């Protein structure tokens, strides 16, 4: 990739940052009751879908009722995960001072504890977006998603690992916080993981108990069908979340960076990195809603603490700013972004140039040698 420093002149970077700061401030100044009403209506819709879904599963002996129950429960879990949980826990509604919308109090319907996720996602991922060896979301500790990750025979299983991660995505996000790859490298001890593991066990036990013990038991002889229905809804949510998140971070044109490139970066350079390291997914209003507006991943990475419902409103202006500064604005329909991600996963499973490390891996090794010296 072209270095961050080569994209714009220092003067352009400064002005670029000022423009985006001004855009952000304009939205912040406009936040108000319509935003609160919006998220409260989404929460009401999510709860209604969950009650409807679980109620229909009580009539699971009728195939149409079972399918409708799974569909309603799947939508409820998607809304809880994407448009409500992810966005509320980003602090997008902390300005309201409403307890149920507090990022520090909210807990979502997934096995990953909110407290662990806020650290690994809000802090690590959004601070060090696409910085190799800093942003642990690049590959989630199991995948090779960039040529800067030196190839190893282990990565021949890339497509298998990606498939398993998609199927069990909530569990992958949960285990992500244990930083197993750092434990294996000796950079983190198992003792350091004890507090994290306790939270994981407590949260996972509650989720498993609710979906696979309590609610099935309440349906009596229909318990196996209810258990299957809950598992199906979780599977739908997992596949959907994986698809949206990977399409926003790993299509072919999205770039990664070294620690040296980003050392001492200014606000404008941070904005620049977010744009180069993200991709949007085009679609209609319902699609954007079900994606938690993470279909506007570029806008989300620029302004993670602004209510996501505002991203479609500013996307055109952000794209316009990018065009004026000669910067890419990566976007495309879901099927195209998914295909791009799938090709990358398969390609990076194989050795670079018949076993030779890719140029980014060479560069990263060189940077590490310089740091060691």
From TrEMBL:
<dbReference type="Pfam" id="PF00487">
    <property type="entry name" value="FA_desaturase"/>
</dbReference>
<feature type="domain" description="Fatty acid desaturase">
    <location>
        <begin position="64"/>
        <end position="331"/>
    </location>
</feature>
<dbReference type="InterPro" id="IPR005804">
    <property type="entry name" value="FA_desaturase_dom"/>
</dbReference>
<dbReference type="GO" id="GO:0006629">
    <property type="term" value="P:lipid metabolic process"/>
</dbReference>
<protein>
    <submittedName>
        <fullName>Fatty acid desaturase</fullName>
    </submittedName>
</protein>
<dbReference type="GO" id="GO:0016020">
    <property type="term" value="C:membrane"/>
</dbReference>
<dbReference type="GO" id="GO:0016717">
    <property type="term" value="F:oxidoreductase activity, acting on paired donors, with oxidation of a pair of donors resulting in the reduction of molecular oxygen to two molecules of water"/>
</dbReference>
<dbReference type="InterPro" id="IPR012171">
    <property type="entry name" value="Fatty_acid_desaturase"/>
</dbReference>
